Amino acid sequence: MITPTTSPFGLLSRPAPLGFERSASQRHRHLFGVDDLGDDELLALTRPCFSPPPATRAPWGTMSLLFDQPSVRTAAGFAASGLRVGLVPMGVNARGHCARADVALEDEVHQLSYISDCVVVRSGEPLDADALRHCDAPVINAGDGGHEHPTQALIDLAALRMLGLEDQRVTLMGNLRDHRTQHSLARVLRRLGVSVVLLSPPGMGMPARFVDGLATVETDDPALADEVLASSDFIYLTPTRWWSTPEHHGGEAFKLDLERARRVLRPQARVLHPFPRTGELDVSVDASPYNGYHRQLALANGVRARLLAHLLGRGP
């Protein structure tokens, strides 16, 4: 963990650099997890930005989208963001024949790196980063099994910073064992010295490798969950359901509607959610001041475009 030097908030109080120097040995930068980015990079890529996005650049390259799991927002978002920085997206179907089960996904990614300028990959299993580090184009992890989702964490951090993160408490809530978005965000917030509480159903706590001293509460008692939420400035809510637990709904302690929000949450509290929602976040919250998740969606493509430009050496 990085120890703040000037305030409890540490790194977030420090201005981000406007650009990065890149040597020839860094020509192919990859993003497999949030720890592949330095602190200055995290801050620059997620800096609050109120200006409209830049005009789309003329096409100069291609980007392969290899998604081994269904995706709506991430796949569409990367396609749109790629066009913004001059990359023509190419959707690649890695499923559909029984023989595909015998093909190593990492090998497919490696081959795509020779015919694309960037490869964005989503996998049902954790990626083997060591097998991909020598790919011939930048590789971006868009979610690998129950491991990490670093690009979503960048979007989440950008939304939190724009909404006002300094000296605030963030509660990560839901199935913390399996949801990769929570894993990456926990690592980022811990590095930046943010106060974090982990709230999950029993048996669904965050794996130890991501926790590292963070306060944890495992309960299915709505009253105890309300106590945690009442002291939170941000609530990052994910479903208790997952690919491996499709029937688990978490109970009332892990569902939020407008009535509960008004009864429990601070007036200035904001709720974030990576989507899709499966019943844990009621649509009644959408039109309320607690809604911070539409800000996440609005910022997403700008953050992805920044990341693509940075990894490809065409911007900060």
Report on the structure:
Helices cover 30% and strands 15% of the residues. Helix 5 (150-163) packs across helix 6 (180-191) and helix 5 (150-163) packs across helix 10. Strand 1 (61-67), helix 2 (73-84) and strand 2 (87-92) form a beta-alpha-beta unit. The strands form two sheets. A five-stranded parallel sheet has the order 7-6-5-8-9, sandwiched between helices. The chain is globular. The chain has helices at residues 39-45, 73-84, 105-112, 129-132, 150-163, 180-191, 208-211, 222-230, 258-264, 293-311; strands at residues 61-67, 87-92, 118-123, 139-144, 169-173, 195-200, 215-218, 234-237, 270-272. The longest helix is centred in the last third of the chain and has 19 residues, at 293-311. The protein has two domains: 18-148 and 300-311, Aspartate/ornithine carbamoyltransferase (Rossmann fold); 151-296, 3-Layer(aba) Sandwich (Rossmann fold). It is of the alpha/beta class.
Characteristic key phrases:
single chain, alpha/beta, Rossmann fold, about 15% strand, Aspartate/ornithine carbamoyltransferase carbamoyl-P binding domain-containing protein, Asp/Orn_carbamoyltranf_P-bd, Asp/Orn_carbamoylTrfase_sf, carboxyl- or carbamoyltransferase activity
Summarize this structure briefly.
The protein is an alpha/beta fold and 316 residues long.
